[in-house]
Specification:
The protein has 422 residues and is α/β, with parallel strands linked by helices. The protein has 13 helices and 14 strands. The protein has 2 domains: 125 residues, YjeF N-terminal domain (Rossmann fold); 284 residues, Ribokinase (UDP-N-acetylmuramoyl-L-alanine:D-glutamate ligase, 3-Layer(aba) Sandwich).
C-alpha cells in the first residue's frame, strides 16, 4: 500500500522525532483529508497519553478522517472506548467488527466498507454475530396470497394504557395495523376505556378484562401499563390465561411488563415456567433491571448483555439502542445467535418509538413469523423507516413516533414483493 501510494503521487512527509515525544506537528495547510491508522482492533483499554493526544489532534483539525480497520480508540468487540477518532468512513479488513455497529461505533465509524484482503468473504470461521439484513428474515415473511382473509393474518391484542398513558398502546396498535395484522385489539387498564380511536377506527378497544385471550394469535404487553398493584394483578392473570389457552399466543413483553418482571420474583417465576414464546424489548435501563446489573455494565458490552438476557429469560431479546442487538434463546448446545441492526438514527430517540416497535413485532408474530425473524424484521424496518424519513428532511430532530407508519408500511410491502430488498 505504501508503494502504491508513492506510485500514485501521494506526497509523503516523515514526522520529526519530536512527534514521537509529545510535541505534535501542525497538519500541513494543503491537507484535504486524514487517514487514521494509529491503533488497531487489539485495543483493550482506553487510549491515553501520546495516543490520546493524537486522537484529539485529528478531531481539532476539522478535516474529514478516514479510518483503517477501526477508528483509533474504539473497542472492536463492543463499540466502547473514549477518546476515539470520529471518522466519516471506515475501511475495515476481512469482516465487519461488532464495535463498528453498536454503542459509540456508528458515530465513530461513519460509513463502513469491508476489504476482504484476498481472503474468502464471508470468512469461513464462525462469526460471533451477524449484521441484521433482509436476508436474515426474508424466507419467514408472511406471503400475501389472493385466497386469504383477515383471519389469515392473525389477531393481536396490545395490553396496557393505564391512567394518563393510553397513548402508548394506541401507538403500538396503529403500527400493528400498518404492518398487516388481520385484527388488532387494545385492552386498556384505564377505566373507562376509550370507546373509539378516531385516528384509526379499525382498532377494537376494550377494557382489559374483555380481551378474549383464546382468540389471540399474539399479545403485546406493557406499553403504558404502569407498575402498580392493578397492573401487577392484570399481568399475572394474562400470563396464567395465556399459558392455559388452547393455542398459545406469542408474547411481546415491553416497557412496564419488563419492569414488573424485574421487580417481582413471583411474576418472573410464572414466566419462567411458561411454555409461551416471548420476545422482550428492553432499553439499557430495563435490561439492567432484568439482569440485576448497572446500566454501565450493560452498555460496556451490549452483545454479552443480550446473550446473558436471552439465556436468563429464555426469550428473544431486542436490546434497543444505537446498533440494536437481537439475541435468540440458547440452542441445544447453549449457543446464542446474535445479530446487530445497522438501520436507524437519532430520530428514534423520542417518546413512543418503542411502543411502535413492540406493535410491529406483535403484528409479525400474529401473522405467523417465528419470534427471532419477527424481531429481526421489525427492528430492521423500524430503523429503515426512520432513515427514510431523515433522508427526506423529516428529522432527526422532531421526528415523531407516528410518522414511522407510512414509510414502514411501504418498506414492508417492498420486501414482500422482493425479499432481497436492501
Amino acid at each position: 500500500a505504501w508503494l502504491e501510494a508513492r506510485a500514485a503521487g501521494v506526497t509523503l512527509r516523515a514526522l520529526p522525532e519530536t512527534a514521537c515525544h509529545g510535541t505534535l506537528p501542525a497538519i500541513p495547510g494543503d491537507t484535504r483529508a486524514l487517514v487514521d491508522g494509529l491503533l488497531g482492533i487489539g485495543l483493550n483499554r482506553a487510549a491515553d497519553g501520546f495516543m490520546a493526544q493524537w486522537i484529539a489532534h485529528l478531531a481539532d483539525s476539522e478535516l474529514p478522517v478516514f479510518a483503517l480497520d477501526i477508528p483509533s480508540g474504539l473497542f472492536a468487540d463492543t463499540g466502547g472506548g473514549a477518546p476515539a477518532v470520529r471518522a466519516c468512513r471506515t475501511l475495515t479488513f476481512i469482516a465487519a467488527k461488532p464495535g463498528l455497529l453498536t454503542l459509540d461505533g456508528r458515530d465513530c465509524a461513519g460509513e463502513v466498507d469491508i476489504a476482504p484482503l484476498g481472503l474468502p468473504y464471508p470468512p469461513a470461521q464462525p462469526a460471533c454475530a451477524t449484521v441484521n439484513v433482509p436476508a436474515s428474515f426474508a424466507r419467514a415473511l408472511p406471503a400475501r396470497r389472493h385466497a386469504t382473509n383477515k383471519g389469515t393474518f392473525g389477531s393481536l391484542a396490545v395490553i396496557g394504557g393505564g391512567i394518563g398513558m393510553t397513548g402508548a398502546p394506541l401507538l403500538g396498535a396503529r403500527a400493528a395495523l400498518h404492518l398487516g395484522a388481520g385484527r388488532v385489539h387494545i385492552g386498556f387498564l384505564a377505566q373507562p376505556a376509550p370507546l373509539l380511536d378516531p385516528v384509526q377506527p379499525e382498532l377494537m378497544l376494550h377494557p382489559i378484562a374483555e380481551i378474549a385471550l383464546s382468540a389471540m394469535s399474539a399479545l403485546v404487553v406493557g406499553p403504558g401499563m404502569g407498575t402498580g398493584t392493578a397492573a401487577r394483578e392484570q399481568f399475572a392473570q394474562l400470563l396464567h390465561g395465556s399459558a392455559c389457552a388452547a393455542e398459545l399466543p406469542a408474547l411481546v413483553l415491553d416497557a412496564d411488563a419488563l419492569n414488573l418482571l424485574a421487580s417481582d420474583a413471583a411474576l418472573a417465576a410464572m414466566l419462567e415456567g411458561s411454555p409461551l414464546v416471548r420476545v422482550m424489548t428492553p432499553h439499557p435501563l430495563e435490561a439492567a433491571r432484568l439482569a440485576g446489573l448497572g446500566v454501565a455494565e450493560i452498555q460496556r458490552d451490549r452483545l454479552a448483555a443480550a446473550r446473558l438476557l436471552a439465556t436468563q429469560w429464555q426469550a428473544v431479546i431486542v436490546l434497543k439502542g444505537s446498533g440494536t442487538v437481537i439475541a435468540a434463546p440458547p440452542d441445544a448446545s447453549g449457543n446464542v445467535a446474535l445479530s446487530v441492526n445497522p438501520t436507524g438514527n437519532a430520530g428514534l430517540a423520542t417518546a413512543g418509538t418503542g411502543d411502535v416497535l413492540a406493535g410491529m413485532i406483535g403484528a409479525l408474530l400474529a401473522q405467523g413469523m417465528p419470534a427471532l425473524q419477527a424481531a429481526q424484521a421489525a427492528v430492521w424496518l423500524h430503523g429503515r423507516a426512520a432513515d427514510q424519513l431523515v433522508a427526506h428532511g423529516t428529522g432527526p430532530a422532531g421526528l415523531t413516533a407516528s410518522e414511522l407508519y407510512t414509510p414502514m408500511r411501504s418498506l414492508f410491502n417492498a420486501l414482500l414483493r422482493d425479499p432481497r430488498g436492501s
